[in-house]
Design a protein that fits this description.
307 residues, alpha/beta, four-stranded mixed sheet, 11 helices, globular
Length: 307
């Protein structure tokens, strides 16, 4: 009996995923969700499908999301102008009010998408359970308003939700000693939360393919980096502005207990599944020094060796 090759390929894909499913069963993965994948409706649905699948095969996913483009849209809608200093949004009282409303709106729309796929999600901000305590963040000495730097993470509410089989979806609003609301950079929030819950993985969905040795040369994508290599990149001065703080966040996360960090192109359909469940992967993985990236029969060969 002849078997359809497509059917056999599907079986091979599932078997290839098995060691990864075994290794990460019951492990926490934090997905920082932003960029085009949040704006394009089809990509948004695919990311949520990926996260739901991760949940249903035994992972414990947590989504941390931003909403910068949406905040800017609403700031414009009410006749205000968005201002930025060194890439950080200047957040006065009126802007903070809009930011909090918009982020909570985005949050509940993501909750709804997960719920529609049959998994129970709960949307919270960093104010819930006093999760994200922060202080005012300055930008090069300039006061940019209600922008927060996280000083403390209390992950109890996250653990409680995970324990009861909910999928937490978190928007990066924090509070200070006076319980004032602060807008927090979503990358920073994802990194701090991943550290606080001892996540096995932290995945950043971005609008770039990953980290390049030379940004102008698209064939120079780095598929795997050690922490030492990542540090050399940060100090080497060859990185574009947006990638520098991301890479620093990755280093901080791994030095504080997160096993590995992935920088992925959220514009690629099902990028999370491709990165996590295949022996090739697609983005840049930053791993602890001496650690290897893949979990398959060839003695955890790195991506280059498996090509």
């Amino acid at each position: 009996m002849e078997m359809d090759m497509n059917v056999m390929q599907k079986a091979e894909v599932l078997i290839e995923a098995l060691p990864y499913i075994q290794h990460f069963n019951r492990k926490i993965i934090v997905v920082k969700y932003g960029g085009s994948a949040m704006v394009d409706e089809q990509l948004k649905r695919q990311v949520i499908q990926d996260v739901v699948l991760l949940k249903l095969v035994g992972f414990k996913p947590i989504i941390v999301h931003g909403g910068g483009k949406e905040i800017s849209r609403w700031v414009g809608k009410v006749g205000m102008e968005a201002k930025f200093v060194n890439g950080l949004r200047v957040t006065d009282e009126a802007t903070m009010e809009i930011a909090e409303m918009v982020l909570n709106k985005v949050n509940k729309s993501l909750v709804q998408l997960v719920n529609e796929l049959g998994v129970k999600a709960v949307g919270i901000s960093g104010k819930d359970g006093m999760m994200l305590k922060c202080e005012k963040r300055y930008s090069g000495g300039a006061d940019i308003g209600y922008v927060g730097e996280i000083t403390e993470v209390n992950p109890k509410v996250i653990h409680d939700l995970l324990e009861k089989d909910f999928l937490p979806i978190i928007c990066p609003i924090g509070f200070d000693d006076q319980f004032m609301s602060y807008n927090i950079n979503a990358d920073d929030a994802a990194c701090a939360i991943a550290r606080a819950v001892n996540a096995e993985k932290l995945a950043f969905l971005t609008d770039v393919e990953g980290v390049y040795r030379d940004f102008e040369d698209k064939s120079s994508l780095i598929s795997e980096m050690s922490v030492e290599e990542a540090k050399a990149f940060v100090t080497g001065g060859g990185l574009g502005g947006g990638m520098l703080p991301k890479l620093q966040n990755c280093i901080d996360a791994i030095e504080n207990g997160v096993s590995r960090v992935h920088i992925l192109d959220g514009r690629i359909s099902h990028c999370l599944l491709l990165e996590i469940f295949t022996n090739k992967g697609i983005g840049t993985a930053i791993v602890r020094d001496g650690d290897k990236r893949f979990y398959h029969e060839q003695d955890s060969l790195s991506r280059e060796e498996s090509r």
